[in-house]
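Fold this sequence, please.
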Amino acid sequence: MNLRHFIEQFCGVSLTADDTSACPFAGRLHDTDTGERAVKWTFPEDGGKPHARCFHAKCQDAWNELIKDLYRAINAERARERGERAAEHPATGTPSGGQSALARRPLPAAPKAQPPRAAKCDLARAAQLAERCPVGDVTPDLLRRISPVEIPADPAAHGALLIDTLYRQGEHVLVFTTFASQGQFLHTAGTQDFFRLGGQPGIKARRSPRLPITGREGVWYLTAPVVGTWQPNPHKHTATGGQALGRRHTACCTRFPYLVLESDEVPPEQWLRILAQLRERIAAIYSSGGKSIHTLIRVDANTPEEFNLHRSRFLQRLTLVGADPAAITPVRLSRLPGCTRQGVTKNGVYTPYEQPRMQELYYLAPEPSDTPLAEKIQAANLQAANLQSTNLQSTK
């Protein structure tokens, strides 16, 4: 048998003169396609079976399966050839029948995609990345200065301002004063509609003059807008086997516009420097009232599956430098800015703060771009310097 020709037909590749080929899994298991020299085939001098593997780790399992299937096909073809030679007619030299069993077989199915894994936070790497920030310290006051939406002096206005700015008119946003609950308040974006919700199905909502401004452990909001009514949860069942009702699960959400980045590992001043270098659509930045800072990244996902495509990208890039992987989910509660946090619970024990801590709003952008915040800060600094120079010139 012509082993090289056999491999070309079986694997669907073309071998070059130096026994290299493209990877048959390029475009399926990895995006990088290095052309016809991506794979080097090795042929033993004794006529044994060849070996090859792409250098991309993502297709390693698929290559293992492909090589196994290739070896089995080579054995079968050689056995067939031996059988045909034994049955060859002595006078005419023609085989007794049958054609080559080889036909170009489809490649083995790609292995089931594994969910991306979060990297362990490397504080040294995070510190190095923070040091690369071209504008040095990124302070809350500096972020407020470049915020496309002016941050009001009165913190009590910040929660409704964030919802009205970042959500479409008429969308419903759930607000929580108890984290492990189905929500206590609801605000309809772009309106003066605020509601205090019933704790159980069947309890009618009541109008509220405003959103809450404090909570025992703070105030949160669900980053995905909801239908606002109790819906069956296909992933949670009652004791009788029926679907439990809820207001904050995936089936309640109408879309998934934002992804939350936060870090409990990296110091806030370093985390702000890291955020300032990201080329992502940052819609809002605010503090948790504790040691972390929450950042809303606009992804405009319509389904959980679409959201998870974005999630995998952030897991691979940013968990190494401190991003909390548990926060990057389609259904996620985030801190509502402009509210105070009165204390914290650790290991089941609640400890009040000496003074309530504010969940502060630093930055708000209704139409965020992917220009890094550091570049916006540099542009603002340059504009301020030019204005100062102009003023000096005018006074002379």
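The chain has a mean pLDDT of 87. The two ends are 93 Å apart (CA to CA).
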